[in-house]
């Protein structure tokens, strides 16, 4: 259903009912109103209304467990707790946030800092994620806009998105006209018929059409200019932590629909003004506790088993507890481990598909505290290609308060480097040093900079979306009506990806349970669910045969 924002029953960042529980100052805090409706920029954004029902649980509230305290788990717990469900959230780590968590570190100068798994862009079309964050920050005051999304290639080619229109198709035309990576001869050599699927992306049809191809094969068919491929497509595909040769072409097409060809929100984005825990997750944890949720941080779940009387028994740390329903909001490896340890969960086919899930290759996040700042003209964020494994550079002291305070006190700077989809068998210390060398080459003012401190995060826990892998991915619903799955690995018929897929499936999991209990769930929004141009949609259908 597509509704103009003026006529929509809820605002595009999610509805957040405010329910009081108890008396006194704490209850007064819980009674603050829901975020005020705000019109999004894209009038073609799609609204998804939940099934009708009561606004809140009546009678004895059901008990629900949410396993995993990342974005998906927090979204599920929020929607359930707001409507009166007794929620217990289990998180293996000592802090919330999942793959966007942070941990305290002590620098060599004795000062405290926060190390995380690196930069994440909060795009304006992340409607449901932003709705989740509005629970604790109604005005999204903790997000700060960056002025551009610059792309640099080692050959000297440079692109950006700050000065192009945001509305398709004018954004694509303006980008091609302005970009140095698109030459007239290259454009003339392209195969427009092969490119048509990019202009009419629908889910799940896009997977039926393109999941059997790799992203690289799709670009080969289009005869996309080599320079533009490296500067734009490869940068985007590697945001899935994989090389284009191993990424499903359907995921690449969906990504371009979400961020470029299907949405009018543009490609600029926001970043938190403090480390993730302080800016996002600690306030949201307080919000959940205010709605009666129990947060068990540092508590890993050992198994989930269907109970004879209905619901599920969760065993954690040797203690077992019975719940009416469970949301499994885990990363790929965590879901595989838990399902393997819970032999009666689901059916044989579901368990086999979970067992086949794989993670993307390892990635590296290196953070350096330097004795001097980066040049004033350098962007706060830079996506790179052709720099020997270096995928982006973030100058944290440009927007993150903690880093800025350290830089102001010491006269130094704080820089973060990312390397996605690293090769197998790397000597990690040598690769870390190589990336630092690449930084010094990229920003010559840092050639003689001394490293005051450094911290590195090597991880391999992002989902892999391989060629032909769509059907193996779990859906929100499972063979057991009391068990739901949420996360960015989950298959859904909505045009969402990355952090927004995590938030959206978390809300969808909560909505499925609330529907069982006769309660109205969370209103959701997505970018348009098809191409914006009717003639191009018709041509794409003809090309598909």
Description:
This protein has 545 residues and is an alpha+beta fold. The protein folds into three domains: 5-99 and 287-355 and 470-526, FAD/NAD(P)-binding domain; 151-268, no CATH class; 361-459, Polyamine Oxidase, Chain A, domain 2, CATH 3.90.660. The chain has 17 helices and 22 strands. The chain has helices at residues 25-30, 71-82, 127-134, 170-178, 184-189, 192-195, 205-210, 215-222, 226-237, 249-261, 276-290, 332-340, 348-356, 401-410, 428-442, 498-516, 534-544; strands spanning 46-48, 63-67, 86-91, 102-106, 112-116, 122-123, 143-145, 151-153, 158-159, 269-272, 294-297, 303-306, 312-316, 319-323, 325-328, 363-370, 381-385, 392-395, 413-419, 451-459, 483-485, 524-526. A seven-stranded mixed sheet has the order 9-8-17-18-19-16-20, sandwiched between helices. The protein has a five-stranded parallel sheet with strand order 11-3-2-15-21, with helices on one face. The radius of gyration is 23 Å and the shape is globular. Residues 1-39 have low confidence and may be disordered.
